[in-house]
Amino acid sequence: MSIAGRPVAAQLRARVPALTGRVVARLLADLPVYADLPHEEISGDIADIVQHNLRLFADVVEHRRPATDAELAQQRDSAAQRAEEGVPLDAILTAYQVGTAMCWQEAAKGALPGDLATVLEIMDRIMVLQQQLTSAVSSAYLEARQILDSQDHGGRHALMAALLTGEPLDRFTHRTGLRPAARYLTMTLALAPHPDELNQPPGPGAGVAARRKIRRVRTVLDHFAGTPVLTALDASGGTVLLPAAEPPPWHGPGGLYALIEEATRAAGVPVTAAAETAEPEVVPAAVARNAEIVDLIARTNRPPGLYRLADVLLEYQLSRPSEALHGLAQLLRPLEAKPELLRTLETYLELGLDRRATAAALHIHPNTVDYRIRRIDRLTGLSPARPADLQHISAALVARRSV
């Protein structure tokens, strides 16, 4: 079909990049909920689905047929994702109508009186496609919302609550008919804010960015477990319970370290995690321990990643209330008025007593590092150069962060 001597389908395909930009700009101008979406989503998912729709319209016109179910799959997936992110259905349908109208305007541009029959046929094609889009998008959105609502209020929610509160399992099984797994991999996650959360003013946009981050992490966890996992996550992190027939390996392909690396890539932010495999009866204690470990990691300025209790045994033990804890912290009290000495000491230990690396990290001369270490020795009576003192210094630094 041609208008003004131009094949409509070929003209539309050639104009897809420019028309996509115009449609996206119109959505941002006319629909506040789209203006509040993260830039990452606008330039990614939203622009992709607009391009897909424009090319689909060109195919429908060229072949003079309705869209197939396969050609509407991407729109259904997009609608399900928007449902998870809390974007209202009416805004999504309005966006499709705006895009369809702009596509029609582009197709009919320059039409002459002799093109009336073609214009009417194209109008008929686009109305059929709009009906198909509305049906596919609405059904996918409502199905996703139904699943989400049932998960929030159904058996999975009840199971996680029972495990975290330590409800007797026989009573829970009798009450719900659900049977917990033989054991669970318990995980506590700490998620850093995504740039789109920080760059958005308070409101729907920041919330959407946070939900996208959480959804991506859940997708990775579900794929790892091979089944939907139990989660209680918000923008800053939370608790995860993965059914585990056997304790999963920590290292190698399919191990837990690789899992957290993949979750970090998917979320687009640093992820700190602590994990422990536990039988259902001791899940509450394992979750509490994981939370303490993640808190210790933050307080001791360790890098993000996955940690076990074995990785923080000294810090964990020193974080227990005791008389010795305060005494250890007091060993470095003479340095409180000399923050440059305390920072040098911390960096020196973190970098394995490497004076040159310490100097580079602090932007000072290596001789200055040596001078400061000598001053620390004079003020505290402790020197990292003496093995016996090194143990006390390491414990004292941990104790200072714990009291």
Low-confidence stretches: none
Shape: elongated
Order of helices and strands: EEHHHHHHHHHEHHEEHEHEHHHHHH
Characterize the biggest β-sheet: 5 strands, mixed
Number of helices: 19
| Protein structure class | alpha+beta
Classify the oligomer.
single chain
Strand content: 5-15%
N-to-C span: 78 Å
Q: How many extended strands?
A: 7
Rounded to an integer in angstroms, the radius of gyration calculated over CA atoms is 29 Å
The chain-level mean pLDDT equals: 85
Name the helicity range. 55-70%
Widest sheet: strand ordering? 4-5-3-6-7
List keywords for this structure.
9% strand; single chain; alpha+beta; five-stranded mixed sheet; two-stranded antiparallel ribbon; 403 residues
